[in-house]
Amino acid sequence: MAARQTIPRPARWVRAASPVWRPDIDLAGLTGRPPVTPLGSNAALDLVHEALIDTSRSADGVVQPRPSAVLVALSDTLPGQSGVHVLVTRRASHLRFHAGEVSFPGGRLEVGETPVQAALREAFEEVALDPTTVAVHGELPHQRTLSSASSIVPVVASVAEPRPLTASPDEVDDAYWVPVSTLIAPGVHHRELWKRDSHPWPIDFFELADDIIWGATARMLVALLARGE
């Protein structure tokens, strides 16, 4: 599947040190804790609460422009599975930007929408994720993409009762849940420094068994999972 992606690696790049994963990511010890909210996954909540930030306003209190949003959906209640999983999609191969790449459900904000509304709407349109099963908890640091010049708000949420996903062929080719234990396993992540305008630009990669998560999506995962990132 990873062969469908086009990774525009420049001629000049070097390997960089990978981040240190947060010490509280101990999936075996996250079960059996009191519920934080009536709707949501306990382990998923424990995983995200320290990574969330308040980025809704600038220093002068003016709401920042937010042209796009994605849903970083986590669950530890997948049927037949254990541990926390994160939902990703494979963007349709016919799309103009980021064709075939692994990403989170999301897209441009419509007129009058908040980032949360946009993220939930896009997740429903792309993979039929029922918004009534989703509990939103906050945002990760906002991201920018170079090729499509997008400013992205990552909205973090937990899914209490995940139902079968249905990928919309107009937008995504596939949708699936990735175990967090796989993402933080030794050798899965690596970081490269790409030279752009004489400046090194860090690019993160998660190399799965049959796929690659990289770019803005990988940066969001690092923001969620790494210590001090």
Polypeptide structure, described:
By secondary structure, this protein is an alpha+beta fold. It has one domain: Nucleoside Triphosphate Pyrophosphohydrolase (Alpha-Beta Complex), CATH 3.90.79. The chain contains four helices and twelve strands. The strands form two sheets. Strands 2, 3, 4, 5, 6, 7, 8 and 9 form an eight-stranded mixed β-sheet that branches. Strands 1-10-11-12 form a four-stranded antiparallel β-sheet. It is globular. It starts with 12 loop residues before the first strand and ends with a helix. About 14% of the residues have low confidence.
* C-alpha-based Rg, rounded: 17 Å
CATH-level-2 architecture: Alpha-Beta Complex
CATH hierarchy class name? Alpha Beta
The figure for the number of domains is 1
**Regions with pLDDT < 50 over 5+ consecutive residues?**
25-42, 54-66
Strand percent estimate: 25-35%
Listing every helix as H and every strand as E from the N terminus to the C terminus, the arrangement reads EHEEEEHEEEEHEEEH
Describe the largest sheet: 8 strands, mixed
What is the helix tally? 4
Name some characteristics of this structure:
eight-stranded mixed β-sheet; alpha+beta; Nucleoside Triphosphate Pyrophosphohydrolase; 229 residues; four-stranded antiparallel β-sheet
Task: Describe the SSE topology.
Blueprint (H helix, E strand, L loop, with lengths): L12 E4 L25 H7 L19 E8 L9 E7 L10 E2 L2 E3 L6 H13 L6 E6 L3 E2 L6 E9 L12 E8 H4 L5 E8 L2 E9 L4 E3 H11 L4
Parallel strand pairs: 2-8
Antiparallel strand pairs: 1-10, 2-3, 2-5, 3-4, 3-9, 6-8, 7-8, 10-11, 11-12
